[in-house]
Specification:
homotetramer; 133 residues; alpha+beta; five-stranded antiparallel beta sheet; 3 helices; 23% helix
Chain lengths: 133, 133, 133, 133
């Protein structure tokens, strides 16, 4: 499904770095999260309303990241995101983070649809499932 | 009220640093927050229960910090915290962060008691007011 | 000097929130930082090159923030930043963070010019001083 | 090598949570990092000195985490860490994060030894290799 892809561009902040002089490895996870929110927005899904009106959220259950090359302060990086696989209650997003032609990070994140009140797994709402198809 | 003081000790993590080689200035705010939670715990106030059972929280409304000397990775720093002033709906905590004899940061943080549902200012519960007296 | 102002717009991420349902108060500091970097960029100062080529950085020495109203997940917020005062070795930036017409946070941050190697205060380079004039 | 294990205990802070009411998934990475620093400290390796005196650091190159159950504000969680495998230039740490008897997260993190100046992969110093054996 890579034809259905969103590219989220982010400027690396000073606070994103650590004393090794590169972006701390935990920071990329925030970018992955924001990229999938933008992916959904571009397909008509407002994640804020999903939580507020339907009490449903997407919870990270599995995360795999391979760090190839470090991002640095003030870089503009492109986070490519696409749904790689989906079930009735979960979705696996694939990611590739680039700075220009350089691949920085590859990742997959599996998210489960969870009801915020009950904390139980829930079927993905039809519009969300459609956005991931 | 400096006779009523708590000292919260924290080890500086790698992720707390930035590429300048020191702790990022925003990180100290997390330590101040944790220190006041420990201050309350030592006086019998469980902040988690305050939120859950009474739907009350403490919200930062004013913050002043003076950075004297930087903390560095792996330092053990002591966060001294005490209530400097309180009203029926708010409290001003004073702070001094030290590494050994070196003063790193001085700060004051004013917090208002707010009802989580309504978002409105609320009288401090009596046990909290007593803990701050 | 409010005629020389930059507006930096940021989308609130999910990770920026806390369990109180609003943006954590420490997150705004990252936005203030990014806003002043953009302020300098718009006036020809590349902060990354300043650090790399001249070994000079700007270090936060004093911070005052007044939180008026909370930002929330997915908000688009505008960070207004302007130099309020400058000396030969420091600058005080003023800030106002808005969501539409609503004022969220007002802040002032004083930064000192510091040599990264020596850790000593240093005169602001002429181009930086000019950008702040 | 699970007989050689360190347990790092951490109190969940308020800032570690998100508006879903649980710890944000990126926060666990900071705990994993701190746990491996403590693992090394218990075996005589001072990570700060490794960087300062030998210009060597450990860089995350591969990360896999499985989130089983969420940590919550004010929980005391135990991060179990052990070296699962090592080569002459890298180490794979295994992790299990628990709250009491409840397994919260399982993870593996592969780190490469890298020279801070050159950015190139470097042989693990003998004392570090011994601590991981």
């Amino acid at each position: 499904m890579t034809e259905s892809k969103t590219i989220y561009t982010v400027r690396v902040g000073y606070a994103d770095t650590d004393q090794g002089g590169v972006v701390h490895h935990s920071v990329y996870l925030r970018w992955l999260e924001q990229a999938r929110i933008e992916y959904l927005r571009e397909r008509g899904i407002d994640f804020r309303r999903l939580e507020k009106e339907q009490q449903l959220t997407l919870v990270v259950v599995d995360l795999h990241a391979r760090y190839r090359s470090p991002a640095r302060f003030d870089d503009l990086v492109d986070v490519h995101v696409w749904p790689a696989r989906a079930t009735s209650v979960s979705v696996l997003f694939g990611y590739a983070i680039h700075r220009g032609d350089t691949l920085l990070v590859e990742a997959e994140v599996k998210l489960a649809c969870v009801h915020l009140g009950a904390g139980t797994v829930h079927r993905l709402p039809d519009p969300v499932a459609a956005a991931l198809a």
